[in-house]
Amino acid sequence: MLIDTYGRVATDLRVSLTDRCNLRCTYCMPEEGLQWLAKPDLLTDDEIVRMVRIAVTELGVKDVRFTGGEPLIRPGLVGIVERCAALEPRPKLSLTTNGLGLQRTAQALRAAGLDRVNVSLDTLRPEVFRTLTRRDRHHDVIAGLDAARAAGLDPIKVNTVLMRGTNDDEAPELLQWALDHSYELRFIEQMPLDAQHGWQRDGMVTADEILTALRSRFDLAPEGETVRGSAPAERWLVNGGPGRVGVIASVTRPFCRACDRTRLTADGQVRNCLFAREESDLRTALRSDAGDAEIAELWKAAMWGKKAGSGLDDPAFLQPERPMSAIGG
Ligand code: SAM
Ligand code: SF4
């Protein structure tokens, strides 16, 4: 299994399928985009499926989430999902997406074996969406959410980042909308993982602020310490339930002690933490004649060195070299 020196066991694998994206969220990347990975550096579909197979059959991984960049722009996505769903033991398969194109692919993804989807949506106002993402595609995200529901993906979670002065007044409105549509809304604190290094601790909207705003309109009861477990979101029952809302307070209430994540970047590097400054190259082994057992050993070694925490609370914190979109959020 993937254990580290603090006794944490990673059973949840995040696979980045591409570093490219069709939006330009201000908290993620600059308007002009980034220097994308070169095609030969990206793992092929076969290589990705092999890595997932090693993770599931040799290393105890149980949950696999495909992300990016924008995973829906990876041409082989449906085939990758289908092949991962055929693995024994079968991992739970989920996707984090901005929703663009989900209208066309939700049905095929469900049929291929995708279990769940998280769709990122920060605002209900098309003009605010345009400001935040620099693209006029709000209606596509809503259509993608509708298609996910029609395809039977369940639960559907919605990820929201609040940015001060842009959409930070929308928290209660977003929650009411999510409750009306039976989506589980999760607010994510803005993290210092943007390519432009524009994050400022005193500029971010904190979990406490979000909860205060929500409580102005809803009764929130904590679901209890035990429910959070290794899940990053603290969850609250809204108005007695069954609706819920989550807050992922990575900055102000980090959950590193319970972290069960391991990450694979689109170019075949294993990362033991979103905030790690080191990565372990597994692509070289994958493209040599290394067997599965050898790759599994390299993966174990990469996880063994995981640090106790993200270091965000340290004034000397240094952002990782790669932004969130290249690591896989
Ligand atoms: N493109 C897909 C999407 O937006 O859902 C998947 C990749 S994106 C990096 C994954 C999640 O990370 C999204 O919910 C996004 O809002 C979030 N995210 C991106 N940059 C962030 C940041 N600096 N702080 C907090 N969350 C961030
Ligand atoms: Fe793209 Fe997701 Fe980053 Fe927005 S948050 S720019 S949708 S990768």
Structural description of this entry:
The chain is of the alpha/beta class and 329 residues long. It has a single domain, classed as TIM Barrel (Alpha-Beta Barrel), CATH 3.20.20.70. It contains eleven helices and 14 strands. The strands form two sheets. It has a twelve-stranded mixed beta sheet with strand order 9-10-11-8-7-6-5-4-3-12-13-14. Helix 1 crosses helix 10, helix 2 packs parallel to helix 3 and helix 3 runs parallel beside helix 5. The protein is globular and about 60 Å long. The chain starts with a strand and ends with a helix. The relative contact order is 0.17. The mean pLDDT is 94. The structure holds S-adenosylmethionine and iron/sulfur cluster. Iron/sulfur cluster binds next to loops.
Domains (count): 1
Work out the oligomeric state of the chains in this entry.
Answer: single chain
Secondary structure tally: strands: 14
Give helix and strand order, one letter per element, not per position.
EEEHEHEHEHHEHEHEHEEEEEHHH
CA radius of gyration is 19 Å
Under CATH at level 1, the class stands as Alpha Beta
Low-confidence stretches: none
- Sheet with the most strands: spatial strand order: 9-10-11-8-7-6-5-4-3-12-13-14
Beta content comes to 15-25%
N-to-C span: 23 Å
Number of DSSP helical runs:
11
What overall geometry do the principal axes of the alpha carbons give? globular
Are any ligands bound, and if so which? Answer: S-adenosylmethionine, iron/sulfur cluster
Biggest sheet architecture: 12 strands, mixed
Helical proportion, percent range = 25-40%
CATH superfamily: Aldolase class I
Instruction: Report the average pLDDT across residues.
Output: 94
